[in-house]
Amino acid sequence: MPVKTCVILGGAACVWDDLEQAREFGPFDATIAINDMLAHYQGEIDFAVSLHPEKFNEWMAARDAKGFSRPKTFVAHANNTEQGRQGAFWLDIVMDYRWPGMGSSGSSGLFAVKVAIEQGFDRIILCGVPMDGAQSHFFDKAPWSEVNAFTEAWGVANPFIRDVTRSMSGQTKEWLGHPTKDWLKP
Hints:
The chain has 186 residues and is α/β, with parallel strands linked by helices. It has helices spanning 15-22, 37-40, 56-66, 107-118, 148-161, 170-176, 181-184, and strands at residues 5-9, 30-34, 47-50, 73-77, 85-86, 89-90, 93-95, 123-127, 136-137, 140-143, 165-167. Helix 4 packs parallel to helix 5 (148-161). The radius of gyration is 15 Å and the shape is globular. It starts with a strand and ends with a helix.
């Protein structure tokens, strides 16, 4: 059976360089974008994922204003939703962001990995999800001071994600490894 691949686009300043390097591996079956990337990535988005679905309307207004196509599927976690609706925004998939044993969030990036796995992706590459406090977001030069609140969850999730997930940068690259052509297309 062929391997199903995807790239996850996070909000760190390194996202554009990470994506450029990831594209050297060839095309992916899907693109998953989280949070502010929804308003800034001009390419096709298969899954829009966020722990902040209340901002989907804002991000979609920005996409619309730029003439970008809308994502195909919107995903948020169960605790922030009411029967699939967030404000006036309809969610296609509502699911929990945690794996067994996980008490707190690991950021929208880790949630996007869970979405990818549950959608059947065998090979997931993180771009712009370094989980490194020294990294700023691409839209804000201030270091991400909240990063430490999310790192424990990555450790809990590691056994569930490590075989199918690699990262292009930062701590997630240290924890999960860098993708290779052999890993991507076994």
